[in-house]
Structure formats: C-alpha cells, structure tokens
C-alpha cells in the first residue's frame, strides 16, 4: 500500500495523523486549500482529541488523494499509447486496492474530487476522470518538475480538459486534410518511384498535422520564425506539406539530375535545407527554415539552436517569443546520441538559450534493425528531458486529435515558461529502414502486426464517419484531388533538365557573394586609421574609477597601457583590437568556448570581475556609444554541441564575427562531426557559406600528447575547392588582420586559426602600431634580415617553431639561412611562394621544418601541393601520438630539429 504523503510538500509528514495533528495545533501552518478541506471534517476533531484516532472516512479521503497523485505521477505507465502492440506491464498498478480502498468505496462520495476540479464526487467518477486524463491516448510526465507554478499550470490545463480534444467540425476537416496530404504523398512516391530511397513517414503521418499545429498555434501566440531540424525520416513529406517546397522540385530531385551550378556538389534529396515565407490559416505571416543536415543523427540539433539564437539576437531584438526551434527526433537517436544531452544542457544557459525548443519524437519503436529494448536502458526514449525538468507527453500516433490537442498545449507551455517540451509520438515504420530493406528479418512479429494495420488517415476517417462529422465521399474526394495534382506536377518535373537549388536562409545573405578562385590571390586592406586605433586602444585599457578590481587585474591593464605607450603590442592586445575595431565599424562579435572570457592561458581578460563580487566589466563594450557589442560567453564543457551552435549562429549572421575557441586545440576532435559534415563541406553540399572562426591553441611546449597538437594535418586533408582558410600566424598584427579580413571580404569562409600558447608572452612575439595601421594580412612573411645573395638555404615553417629557429640563427650569427613563415596554409599562397623562390634563386637547399611528427603537421600537405622546389623535411620522427609526455625528451627532440636545420646533424632527404 502507498502511504507516503510527499505531495503535501513536507517530507516530515508521513501519515494522516501527523498532518491532521499539525492542522489542529496551527491551522495556518497548512495551505489554505487544506484548511478548507479539513473544515469539512470538523466532526473528527473531538474523536481525535479524545482517542488520537482519525476516522476511516478521513483516512480514505487521503487515500483517494494519494490515488489522484499516483495517477499524476505514474499514469503515463498505463496508457493506451502504443498503436500496434501492447505496452510493457508495470507494478504496482493503479488499482484502488493498492491505496487502502475497496470496491465498496466506488459509490462513496469523496471531498477529494475537488482536487480535480470536480467537487465532491463518487470514487468511480474520480477514477474515470483520472483514467481519461492520464491513461488514455496521452501520457504525461511532469511531476518531477521542481517549480510548483509549472506543475499547477499543467495540471489545470490537462485536468480541466480531461486531456480530451473537443474540436469543431471545421477543425476536424483541416486535420483530415493535412493527414490526407501526408498519406497520399507517401503512397504516390511509393508507386511512382519504386525502389528509390525516400525514408518514408508511413506509420507516422500524424507528424504532419502536429507540425501544422505548431505553426498555426505558435503564430497565434506571437511566434513569427520557426527553425526546424530533423533527420531523413519523413523529411520529404515535411518539405512538401509543411514548408510548401513545390512537388515539382521534389520530383525532379528523384530523377537525380545535376544542377547548373558548378560550385555545387549537391547532396541526397532528404538532406537538403529549405526556407519559405507563409501565411497561416488565420492570416499570420511566418518564416520557416528547415536546416540542411547530414546522415549523422541529431548532429543538426545544435545548429538549429544556433540559427534560432542568431535570429533572436539580430532580427527580433532578443525577443524569445518570436522565434521557436523545432527538433524532430527518432526514438533510437534521441536515446542513443550524446549530442542530445549536450544540447539540452544548453537550453537555460544565458549564452545559448533559445526560449524553449519543441521536441517531436517520431517513435517508431525500432532503430534501423535494433529493437527498442536493445537501444536504451531508460523506460522512455525521452527520459533525457528530465535532466532539465521538461514535461514529456507520450501520444498514440494513431490518435491524430490527441496529438493535435497536446501540441497546442505544448505551444502554450513553451510561450509561457520558455522551456523545452517533448512530444513522444508512438507510431511505427511501415517499411524497413529504407524502402529497399526487409524488416521481417529482424522484427517478424512486429511487422506481421504492421502489415494489417490501417494507416492513420483511414482510422481518423472512420472515426469522423462514425461521429457523423463528414460525408462518406469527402475523404475519397480529398484523396483523388490531391493525387491528381501530384500527377500533374510529376509530368511537369519530367520536362526539366536541371534540378533547382532551393533556398535556405537566403535573405540575410543577399549582399554576400560566392567566392571565386581569384578572390584568394591577395588579402584586402584591413588597416585601421592610426588615430582611431589609438583612441580605441586607450579606452579599452581604462578601468572605471568607481569600481574596485583585483590588484592583479589593475596591473594587467596598466601593462596594456604601457604597451600602447611603448608601441609594442602583445598577442592579447592584437586580438582584442581586432574585435574592437570591427565593433567600431558596426560588426558585432560573438565569442564562445570553454573559459574564453579570461582565456585558458589567462591572456585575454575580455571580462573582468570586481573584487569581492560576482559583478563584472567588459572593457570592449565600453569604448563608444555607437559601437556594436561583444557577446562573449564561457560555454559548458562541450565541444560538439557548442561548435555546432556557433556554426548555426554563423549561418544566420553573415555580418557578425562568430568565434569558437577550444580550451586546447587538441580537444577540437570532440566536435569532429561538426567539422566534417558542416564546416568543411556544407558550402559544396548545400551551397551555404559560413564565416565561423575556430581558434585552436597549438604548439609543442612539453605538455604531452593531449596538450600539444590541434592536428593541422586533419584540417589540411579536408581542404579543397577553397572550402575554408587555415592559418598559423606568428605575429599579433597578422592575426589582427586575419580576423578583420573575415568581414572585409565580399564572401564568407570558415577560418581555422592555429593560435599560440607560449608565444602569448614571448618577448619577440609583438607588433608595432604601423603593423596594424597599414596593409593587411600577409600570407607569407619573408626573412627581413636575410641577404638574398648570401642565402644558400631557405627554411619554410609555420607557427611557433619560427621563434626557436630565429633564436638559434641569431645565437650562431648565421647569414646564409633565410627563415620564411607560411602564415596561411590554405588556400596555399603559391604566387607569394613563387616570389620567394625567385628571390632566393641562388639557394641550394630548401627545407620544410615543423615541430610535429613527420606523419602529422603540414608536411604531407606541403609535399603534395608545393612542388615548385625539391623540399626536404625536418620534423620529429613519425609517431602514433602527437607528442611525448616527458619534458626532457621533448626538449631533446626540439633541439634536434633546430640542430638539423643548422646542419649540426644530417638532414633527411625525401
């Protein structure tokens, strides 16, 4: 028997006697609702005071209350939400006998009915309402939420309506119409494109009316912008019947024709993105965006959130009511992919929140061939929602009215509380993973049931006919008209020679062009006027006199002021001035990553704390009344989700400088999927530019294999078709110009910037004022001290190793070696390199020197792409790990590289 009273909100009360005793001793110590309740049992007072006993009638009231709360807590376990098979059995059940009640009590009137808004009611009626509300086609999980107001709101919404739809006839016809479109569209594709992969929605067609409800109800509540992310299942149906991509265009893609755009490699039809402007049934204007996605399930989730946040920040003036992200998951993916957890953990963080995401789960109870009981340990695939205390609604996917009803409730919840909400649509997959797959190999019993199961439209049609809501011919007429229209569009598509590249987020990018090959020959002028530069610099190193800062903070800013006065700017000053000067020109800067406000290596201090306080001050946001803002946030300890979020943010903001920094460059591979599937390839799969900057601290300083290498070789292996830029700068000014260059070109490309660690404080890694106020980014830095006529050996290198080489060269007073820095690795600046070759035409030896092992770093790429001279390599020996973990061995290896360059040991030929 369940006899705990946790629902009373007092953990010390475990019995009716204790609670009643508390009320009698001090009525005001209990909730007013309970005071009123106990007043109805005044007759029990004398008996309790004399004998210490509570009459059984009062105990039974509490037993009924306990029963009510059990339905609220556990009713979802006993629902009729599975359309094709029986649910698993759970115990204890909700039978009244488990609550100290007996069948004879069913005719007894209980005051506890007031808890459900019924007033005093017979137990049988209370149980009937509870079953109707919590154990029908909808199961609700919400009692774990720790905010009483939210629980009360959800209870009121569900219990007042009994979770039972009451739609008007016109609403029912509209639902049937969307369901008809979903079902007929899939049937049409199945018969016209036999054997082609389309990852059909069959078995889950009620998703389309649900999405339509999200848009219609959402627009009524003030939402103007919806950003959708989903994988392949049902995507074509969503494109056609929600975003209104033309059926003709979709059919053309089935023909597999190429496009007229030579810069567009393309992708399969169920990965493409699309945007559209629509009017709802009530005349509301809305914008929809379906984000392009790879086959990596759930990888698109953070991208969607980033796009949504960008729109909130830049288009809707930080109004979370205007933009809603919608994520459509599969049951196996939401349970199995860790990125879901990372994204959900971002949902309430200041730098990443989007005002609440609508999560729709197409729960077809199987993942490819894997049964649900092999796909998760949790009861539900949606149990990750409980991490952030989001409500979950489990709905029978065959009951379209229940689904539409709960979707409306979910939209109201989102707009009121700005939190995520999950709708778990229990459905099935009619065919295998794709249409050519045989599901009976792995789920023979399930697919025997599915084979004879009517589709949701047939079920709903029969329901409406039985209720007398529609005429018998209406459904047939709907089907015929829609099918005839599809056939007409199919015939039109066959006349097209090329597929149309459909738009996605086109509006924000109207004035940004796609880059051509010649655009990379020379960087633009990104210099800043000297007077402007000095004015901004001086203002950003001033701390307010009325605020008390930590002594070390004040010293740090005095040191920065001394840099200005001494005309010697270190890395941090060069970097911060890049942001400040862009902001002065009206370009916002968004910067996230782990510990970025201070910087992993305590160099940036873009945000400083006040002494003995959590208050903070951002100098770069206080140098001008007209400047754009720096939005800089320390992120949660995630690479995958945060990089994906920033990529999405950059997709929607071509005139913002979006930056993600790895704590150490080595850690970027936690986000490898975002790099592989989006950053390096999206422009050529989906024709979408992106100006994201990745800052990856890189350099060999004896910190071991996990804190030395940002894997230059991996990025260079992905480079082709000018898809991104890869730099490894050696001066603050060149990094300054590289960052400014991002927004001073007429196109956008991702920038992979390998950044220093020890060089942050290296006395020679500094720049002068004129380096910032003249020219632009230099792809190659020549040896200014070399006399070309005396040079016999030219050393090409990149990054920190240059300073090691320079120290040795000057120490030994070497005059016949030129040290040439390759600041931009990709696109390879061949014109500039050829000029270097021509200058040192008398040289006999040409070396590539790197501190990475020979099988890593840039060497393999240089060997393949830079063939104008016969290069020899000096590097660490090839290795399975990037670096040794022993500091003395590191020092020996580093010195060997230097010694080999200056011929203190032999150089290896290649």
Report a brief summary of the structure.
With 910 residues, the protein is α/β, with parallel strands linked by helices. The chain has 31 helices and 26 strands.
Structural notes for this entry:
Helix 7 packs across helix 18. A hairpin with a 6-residue loop joins strand 14 and strand 15. It contains 31 helices and 26 strands. The N terminus and C terminus are likely disordered. It is globular, with a radius of gyration of 33 Å. An eight-stranded mixed β-sheet has the order 3-11-12-8-7-4-6-5. A seven-stranded mixed β-sheet has the order 16-13-17-18-20-19-24, with helices on both faces. It has a five-stranded mixed β-sheet with strand order 21-23-22-25-26, with helices on both faces. By secondary structure, the chain is an alpha/beta fold.
Layout of secondary structure:
Layout: H1 16-25, H2 32-39, H3 44-51, H4 56-74, E1 109-110, E2 121-122, H5 123-134, E3 138-141, H6 148-161, H7 169-192, H8 207-220, E4 225-230, H9 235-241, H10 247-254, E5 274-279, E6 285-290, H11 300-314, E7 323-330, H12 331-336, H13 338-346, E8 358-363, E9 366-367, E10 370-371, H14 372-375, E11 392-396, H15 400-417, E12 421-426, H16 444-451, H17 456-467, H18 472-493, H19 530-540, H20 551-566, H21 571-584, E13 589-593, E14 608-609, E15 616-617, E16 630-634, H22 640-651, E17 657-661, H23 672-679, H24 682-686, E18 693-697, H25 712-717, E19 725-727, H26 732-741, E20 751-755, H27 769-773, E21 780-781, E22 793-797, H28 801-811, E23 817-822, E24 824-826, H29 830-839, E25 845-853, H30 859-865, E26 872-876, H31 887-901
Parallel strand pairs: 4-6, 4-7, 7-8, 8-12, 11-12, 13-16, 13-17, 17-18, 18-20, 19-20, 22-23, 22-25, 25-26
Antiparallel strand pairs: 1-2, 3-11, 5-6, 9-10, 14-15, 19-24, 21-23
